Amino acid sequence: MDKFRAITVFRRVIELGSFKAAAEDLNLSKAAVSKNINELENYLKSPLIIRTTRRMNVTENGLRYYNHVRNILDEMANADLSILEDTQQLRGELRISMPMSFGLETINPAVCQFMKLYPQVNIDVLMSDQYVNLVDQGIDIAIRGGGQLKDSSLRSRKLVELNRVLCASPAYIENAPELLEPDDLSFHNCLIYSLSLSPTNWVFKNENEIRELNLLAGSYVVNNGLALKQAALAGVGVILTPEILVRDELEAGKLLRLLPAWKVDAHALYAVYPYHRETSHKIRTFIDFLSKLDRK
């Protein structure tokens, strides 16, 4: 038995949830995956995975063994990286996940600048407003909005705070009810970004008070920030969005800032990465680069 291969196969079976998925991920046959698991179980004299025709279940010993070997494999990979990554010249591949709208507007131009500085680094970008599983998809860094990390195997670093602004097009405002205070939004068509942590809960503050609104979704709900901006530009309704996504439109008068005396909490942007890659020079360098960019 090749023990290193067997525990590597075992780890991917657990993480991907099936023998077939692990076989595809490791470029092995399903029979080869089964053989590695059987040999490992025979060596340990304990069942690790209970297989039926429809599903698989990890045993208590299997889960405990997985937690041990995952840490060992991660440390081995990290040890290799500490030697392979030349601190003077970055090289290799960096897989990055980023939200579609903010990625296109801000992060992707920064990635292009980074590639000019480090031409031997190959960048593989996955743009999606949906959260991705870093382990399953082999992602080194994910750029995400705020929120508590649910996976203890991940670490995060705050990059920047994004001020948000309430705005709409002049055409919409001309024909809409008067908007003098947050409560007036109940008479407006509020367009909703569905992947927000609180899509219809908008909180406004001024020097004297806080107004928390639980809005009914308007006529347009979408999971993409650029699509939301396009709807606002078309005069469909009011949006609450990061200011950086509408800065040019505000300066050009295509969108108007609403309720300027009231503020909403900023959203934080984080770099999220697997905990075992904390010492990766390549990852640290990229995150440092992003954190120094001016996005005010």
From TrEMBL:
InterPro entries: LysR-type_TF_proteobact-type (IPR058163), LysR_HTH_N (IPR000847), LysR_subst-bd (IPR005119), WH-like_DNA-bd_sf (IPR036388), WH_DNA-bd_sf (IPR036390). The keyword Endoplasmic reticulum does not apply. Residues 1-59 form the HTH lysR-type domain. The keyword Transcription applies. One of its GO terms (biological process) is DNA-templated transcription. Keywords: DNA-binding, Transcription, Transcription regulation. One of its GO terms (molecular function) is sequence-specific DNA binding. Belongs to the LysR transcriptional regulatory family. This is Transcriptional regulator.
